[in-house]
Amino acid sequence: MTCPLPGKCVHDRVGTKGEHSCTAGRCPHARLVRMALGEQIQAICRKGQRTEREEERLERLKKEYAEALRESGRRRE
Does 5 fall in a domain? Predict the structure, then answer.
């Protein structure tokens, strides 16, 4: 599997032809993306009153989170 974080992940290995690949059984990148999105969503939701801009950002983050979940489901198949 090609590494989405070439040179920045502890599981990244460079092959003899210079290609980056993941040595983990399952790449942690997708999980880390979902965790970061979830934390941003929670931070906005904890606010008592949100501005219109925060509401828009919250909806955008929810869509990104749903897409990240769909992508991780596709990788398992």
Answer: no
Number of domains in the chain: 1
CA distance 58 to 60: 5
> Domain limits at 67?
28-76
- pTM here? 0.67
Residue 29 Cα distances to 15, 35, 64, 68, angstroms: 20, 10, 15, 11
d(CA 37, CA 65): 6
- Tell me the pLDDT tens digit for each residue of 31-71: 888 899 999 999 999 998 999 999 999 999 999 999 888 87
**Which residues pair with residue 2 across a beta bridge?**
21
